[in-house]
């Protein structure tokens, strides 16, 4: 049986996004009859993968280099809010659900243009 660690170096970017999509859908299924908020505390690439999954956007066209630079688009302590707008699973971005924090040369502002790319 392969472990997550075994798959780490063999998994393509598309497979990674698909795996995240599977996990997110399992979590949503567990809570489908409950009115609740879900909080995912994850690293930058997973923020992107969850967002693309919920907004039904493809996970294609990213290189390993772009994946390694996700922190530029989703800095430390970034917050992204998505809201389910219809019972059939349509999700939309809730911009500035929490205002970004800036101090000196740091900001945790998400690059919304990157996040909402086609």
Provide key terms for this protein:
118 residues, mainly alpha, Rossmann fold, two-stranded antiparallel sheet, 4 strands, 40% helix, globular, His_Pase_superF_clade-1, Protein UBASH3A-like protein
CATH architecture descriptor text: 3-Layer(aba) Sandwich
Secondary-structure content class: mainly alpha
Average pLDDT, to the nearest integer?
89
Low-confidence stretches: none
Gyration radius (Cα, Å) is 15 Å
| Overall geometry | globular
> What is the strand arrangement across the widest sheet?
1-2
Domain module count: 1
**Helical run tally:** 6
Would you identify the CATH H-level superfamily? Phosphoglycerate mutase-like
CATH topological fold name: Rossmann fold
Portion of residues within helices: 25-40%
Major sheet attributes: 2 strands, antiparallel
Q: How widely separated are the two ends?
A: 36 Å
Topology, pairings included?
Elements: H1 4-8, H2 13-30, H3 44-54, H4 64-68, H5 70-73, E1 82-84, E2 91-93, E3 102-103, E4 106-107, H6 112-115
Antiparallel strand pairs: 1-2, 3-4
Pfam families: His_Phos_1
InterPro entries: His_Pase_superF_clade-1 (IPR013078), His_PPase_superfam (IPR029033)
Protein name: Protein UBASH3A-like protein
How is this structure best summarized?
This protein is mainly alpha-helical and 118 residues long. It contains 6 helices and 4 strands. It comes from Trichinella zimbabwensis.
């Amino acid at each position: 049986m392969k472990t997550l660690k075994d798959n780490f170096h063999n998994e393509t970017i598309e497979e990674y996004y698909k795996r995240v999509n599977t996990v997110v859908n399992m979590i949503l299924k567990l809570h489908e009859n409950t009115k609740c908020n879900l909080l995912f505390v994850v690293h930058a690439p997973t923020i992107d993968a969850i967002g693309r999954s919920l907004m039904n956007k493809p996970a294609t066209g990213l290189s390993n280099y772009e994946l390694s630079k996700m922190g530029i688009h989703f800095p430390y302590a970034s917050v992204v809010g998505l809201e389910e707008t219809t019972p059939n699973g349509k999700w939309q971005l809730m911009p500035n659900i929490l205002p970004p924090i800036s101090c000196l040369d740091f900001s945790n502002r998400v690059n919304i243009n990157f996040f909402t790319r086609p």
